[in-house]
Amino acid sequence: MENQENNQQPAENSAQNSASQKKKNSRQHRKGKPKKARNFVFELSRLFRKNQGKIFSIKRIFRELNITDSSIKNTIIEALETLLEKGEVYMTEDGDIAAHVKTEILEGIVDFVNARFCFVMIEGRELDVKVSVEYTKFAFDGDKVKVEVFPSKEGAKAEGRIVEIIERKEQKIVGKLELSKFAFVLPDNKKIHQDIFIDKNKLKNAKNNDKVIVKITKYPQEVNSSPVGEVIEVLGKAGENDTEMHAILAEYGLPLNFPEEVVNDAKKISAKITEAEIKKRRDFRNVLTFTIDPADAKDFDDAISIQKLENGRWEIGVHIADVTHYVKEKTILEEEAKYRATSVYLVDRVVPMLPERLSNELCSLRPNEDKLTFSAVFEIDDTAFVHKEWFGRTIIHSDRRFSYEDAQERLEKNEGDLATELIILNNIAKKFTEKRFQKGAISFETQEVKFKLDEKGKPIGIFLKQRKDAHRLIEEYMLLANKQVAEFIYHQKQKDGEPKPMVYRVHEPPVEDKLLNFATFARQFGYEVKTKGKEIATSMNKMLASVQNTPQQNTLESLAIRTMAKARYSIETIGHYGLAFQHYTHFTSPIRRYPDMMAHRLLALYLNKKQVEDVKELEKQCKHSTDMEKKAADAERASTKYKQVEYMQILTKNESKVFDGVITGVTEWGVYVEITETKCEGMVRLGDIYDDMYYLEADKYRLVGSRTKRIITFGDLVRVKVKDTNLEKRTMDLMMVK
Questions:
Q1: How far apart are the C-alpha atoms of 484 and 482, rounded to whole Å?
Q2: In terms of Cα–Cα distance, which of 254, 255, 264, 257 is closest to 333?
Q3: CATH of region 104-167, choose from 2.40.50.140, 3.60.20.20, 2.30.110.20, 3.90.1150.10
Q4: 104-167 and 172-238 in the same fold
Q5: With left for phi above 0 and alpha for psi between -120 and 50, is residue 244 left, alpha or beta?
Q6: What does the pLDDT read at residue 30?
Q7: Are 460 and 453 in contact (CB under 8 A)?
Q8: Strand pairing class (344-346; 55-56)
Q9: Which of 46, 287, 456, 684 is deepest in the core (most CB within 10 A)?
Q10: What is the mean pLDDT of residues 53-75?
């Protein structure tokens, strides 16, 4: 507040001087009327006390006090000047009036948007405080800070200034080394807007144009000074595929190689399944069982079994790799899995949570091999009603390994081995889907880009991943297992009557303000999205179905997802809004997700009538797993963006091609355009729109031409050429053409 008050001092002094002069000039004709002035001082003082932190224009003050008589308006001005003299209120640079209030100081995490400002994200509150760069106190992205929130007009976004840096985020920054007379590292991370000075004695033999990881050793203390750092790892030559993929992992704080002792421990685990172990388990080796996975997958962590019962119902088993049989608690394998928390799927590689000895061999449910599993087995009729359920450890022998394409072909043609069983499973799965949507589930199916790569990892083709019935079939049975395990454990009560501790996958309902903003945006394109109760899901699904194959599809799908809360892990069950489940967990992918391993351990405990020893550790690991999941998703998006920009470089290397595109974003500095052919997104800056000077109408999500009055908005079809690409930054500049 200190800086803000200092900035406002001239206006305040001016008002105070004006007040003194007017009082002197008006005392004669106001003699005998002090009571009236005092009443207005009192009324105004009460108005500001009741509305602390709010800013009032003079016109609004008149309205609040129901003043229409122009002669009384002068008296109100004098009363305001009295309050200014007393210091009860102050005048803003715009000439508005606000009460001096004790400003709110909050703690939060810095999130830089660009070089001009950042937001401080306040944990536990739907409040982001915007901070201009001059008020950031040299904070970096990710730092924990105290922020003072300035008073603002009602409905305006919160703004403030950072008053204290509580804790610096451990900054290991990835960037390209520029080495000449001095050494600087140019960060890859767009949220870091300063180059890092490196002492030449701290280069660790890095060469010019190498990608490196640096640690900041000294933060800037004054304007125009650079942070100082030292190289801690050299990744390789910038622009090489392996170097750039490793750089992306490092940028998001994700591990790459396993420590040697972890790999060695995994190698020591015996593959032999003893008779003693088999006797502890329910034997499904003689029941028809198969897997359905991507064609290039190696870690098969789920299988489906099916057999018809004498009562005419179906016994359907969801069999999940028994990872926790092999990965014991308090071992270095366990600690490594806990730390990684998730596998990471970059465009050209998988960085597994578990060493390959486990993920691709011991735990992978490969065909024609006996495998140890943890299963959820259901007795289901043709209407998808679950009559009975059973959970426990099992042994299976997969009869067949299908790719999604193989399974889909059988579903479509009703030909080939196991086609009958696949069709039965698919018919029941569709009924599960129908029931979910009747209960309020939302159908989010975004477009996912895939690449065809050459032997060096260069993209030579790009296409959209297609989700068909084979994908949805597997998805429904995984959802069923996850839901029923969560329900089963929730109803296992402790002695005090409370549910036993569990790791849940939770998803809150959308925040009303975000939903209202999205509904306003969607309405511009003729789509009605409701903002209350069960109508939200119904209208959202209708909109998502209607936008298929329209220019607005990707934009509206992406914005709809952003409107929703982010799913996370928690020991508190608050339901899963998007799936319309009251209780939900992750149980079906323990090879690639640590929370699933936690769910396996908890289910095993409760089946054996045992209790959890450390609930706080569960809660801590839920938060860590959520954080690592976000980092992995960010890294996966970054690798996709890198390959998209690289593909566009290759595509336009020898010719200046013109592409059809659709506008996916509108900002004050330009528009984002997604190229239809490649699904690559780039920026057209305002200066590269050929026919006019444009200004932003933010409330209408559009640009307007100053001279032509041409309107440019979301979903508009345009023609563009590639102006420039930057692989290191993973950005592409475009220009519009006629």
A1: 6
A2: 264
A3: 2.40.50.140
A4: yes
A5: alpha
A6: 40
A7: yes
A8: unpaired
A9: 684
A10: 82
Residue 268 — very low, low, confident or very high, per pLDDT cuts 50/70/90?
A: very high
430-457 mean pLDDT: 91
Q: CA distances (Å), 316 to each of 251, 305, 422, in order?
A: 43, 6, 12
Band (pLDDT 50/70/90 cuts) for residue 43 is confident
Q: By the 8 A CB rule, do 121 and 106 touch?
A: no
Give 682's strand partners.
Answer: 673
Could you give the residue ranges of the DSSP H alpha helices within 383-447?
Answer: 404-413, 419-438
Q: Which of 255, 248, 257 is nearest to 175 (CA)?
A: 248
Determine the 3-state secondary structure of 429 from DSSP. helix
3-state DSSP assignment of residue 684: strand
Average pLDDT, the chain: 89
DSSP 555-590: HHHHHHHHHSPPPEEESS---BTTTTBSS----S-T
Residue 152: per-residue pLDDT: 64
Q: In Å, how far are 332, 424, 644, 714 from 555, measured between CA atoms?
A: 44, 36, 18, 8
List, in sequence order, every beta strand (DSSP E) within 219-322: 228-237, 282-283, 289-293, 302-308, 314-321
Calpha distance 395→372 (Å, rounded): 5
Which of the listed CATH numbers 2.130.10.120, 2.40.50.700, 2.70.50.60, 3.40.50.300 matches domain 172-238?
A: 2.40.50.700
Helix (H) or strand (E) holding 171: none
Q: Which of 94-98, 235-239, 372-376 has the lowest mean pLDDT?
A: 94-98
End-to-end CA distance of the chain: 50
The answer, yes or no, to whether residue 714 has pLDDT greater than 60, is yes
DSSP string, 592-603: TBHHHHHHHHHH
Domain ranges of the chain: 2-99, 104-167, 172-238, 260-436, 653-736
Q: What is the DSSP string of 84-149?
A: HHHTSEEE-TTS-EEE----EEEEEEEEE-SSSEEEEEPTTSS-EEEEEGGGSTT--TT-EEEEEE
Measured in whole angstroms, how far is the alpha carbon of residue 244 from the centre of its chain? 22
Q: For every residue of 535-553, which 3-state class applies, written as one string?
A: HHHHHHHHHHHHCCCCCCH
Both tokens assigned to 526: 């003729």
Residue 558: exposed, middle, or buried by beta-carbon count in 10 A (0-12, 13-18, 19+)? Answer: middle
Phi and psi at residue 462, to the nearest 5°: -140, 135
Residue 38's pLDDT band, with cuts at 50, 70 and 90, is very low
Q: How far is CA 488 from the centre of its chain?
A: 30
What is the torsion angle, in degrees rounded to the nearest 10, for the CA atoms of residue 686, residue 690, residue 693 and residue 698?
A: -50
Contact 267, 356 (CB under 8 A): no
Cα–Cα distance for residue pair 697/676, rounded to 1 Å: 26
pLDDT attached to residue 550: 86
Measured in residues, the chain has a length of 738
The crossing angle, in degrees rounded to 10, of helices 70-86 and 34-50 is 70
For domain 653-736, which architecture applies?
A: Beta Barrel (2.40)
The pTM assigned to this predicted structure is 0.82
